[in-house]
TrEMBL record:
PROSITE patterns: NA_NEUROTRAN_SYMP_3. Pfam families: SNF. PANTHER family: TRANSPORTER. Keywords: Membrane, Transmembrane, Transmembrane helix, Transport. This is Sodium-dependent transporter. It is found in: Membrane. The chain crosses the membrane at residues 12-30, 42-63, 84-111, 145-163, 175-195, 215-237, 249-278, 298-324, 344-367, 382-403, 423-443. The keyword Transmembrane applies. The keyword Nucleus does not apply. It is a multi-pass membrane protein. InterPro entries: Na/ntran_symport, SNS_sf, YocR/YhdH-like.
Amino acid sequence: MAREQWGTKLGFMLAAMGSAVGLGNIWRFSFVAGNNGGGAFLLLYLVFVFLIGIPLLLAEVSIGRKAKSDVIGSYQKLAPGTPWFLTGFFGVFSAFLILSFYAVVAGWSLYYLFHYVTGDFFQAPAEGGYEGAFGGFITQEWQPLFWSALFMTMTIVIVFSGVKKGIETANKVFMPLLALLLLALAGVSLSLDGSMEGLSFLFRPDWSALTQPSIYVQALGQAFFSLSLGMGALLTYGSYLSDDKRLPGAAVGIGLMDTFFAVISGIVIFPAVFAFNIDPSSGPPLVFITLPSIFEQMPLGGIAGLLFFFALSLAALSSAISILEVPTAYFMRLFRWSRTKASVIVGAIMFFLGISVSLGFGIWSGITPIGERNILDSMDYIASNILLPLGGLSMALFVGWYFTKSTALKAVDFGDNVIGNVWYGLVKYLLPVMIIIIFISSIL
Ligand code: PHE
Ligand code: NA
């Protein structure tokens, strides 16, 4: 059977944007920025997105498009008989880690959506408000697992429906809707009393934060996570792209779109954080408490909440399918499994791994694998701050050092001109050096 392909280049763009824009922009961005001092973090994050993220995104997609295979197979095909393919395992491994916790958080989003549909969340719950309601929900055993299972099922269904009919079609609807809603919310959040404090937290860098070594790893990890980089999600999506579709514009478009969503959600969240006296470093629950509080203040806020959690769930779904696709594509080739079989088995394993993540907010909250981090934070830390940058490093080294210069330029549709040389220099020298330095400094 012939390998699947995107219907159009726009379809690819939307799918890649769908992969990039997700919980990372709203949920993860806001609590990581909140933990790392706001403005200085945002600045560093932007530097990494433009200097490392977008050039690497181009490299990653080009590997897939050139090889037309999954994240491990691509290395085997382009560098036969070498150990390069081993670095592809970083990607498959991070896919398992990331989707296991991603599906738990996406399950929370579905739960909120449900309570907006029924109208329960139009007003803050009587006891303990949204904070109490959220805490009461995530500490339970069965309820969160139910929502996470539902989310994983939807992800699997889209992935086994195929690249074009499933993934491409879904993304065409989700993205524009999410953009509209976030813009409207930003307007409301800015009108709250005390919104200036939130804005200055986000946009006025406290330079002293830059002396904290951990902020560099965190900003790099956030750039990789948010851009879907280093795992092979974009490599795999690139492998369904034919050679006549030009890459550079697409890479820049995907990067800009993702950054736009991150900055806008910062503008939505932080004014509200300060207006409602919530601690900006309250971690993963942050958006699940601030956002409903904003909606409650709005005229027709219940409807806005409903639409928002609908869009957030869709954004999560369009990212989750790209994560599931990484091991699915690998197992389809390796074991000659059908798409259905591969996606169901991989998705089920991820769901089971996710059970520990969910219980980590309740009966297993005493389990802290890395430092003070609970199970979700530990898995997230290993995947986002270690495995994704390592996967990205190997892609940069592969394109910069294993390919000849003319092969590399041709792979990304650049000529031997100024832009081409700047990109090549970044990928070959600056990117690996920066990733390695940040890495070593975080270990020390
Ligand atoms: N980029 C997605 C988000 O921001 C998450 C993701 C990470 C998707 C890695 C694919 C690969 O939500
Ligand atoms: Na993102």
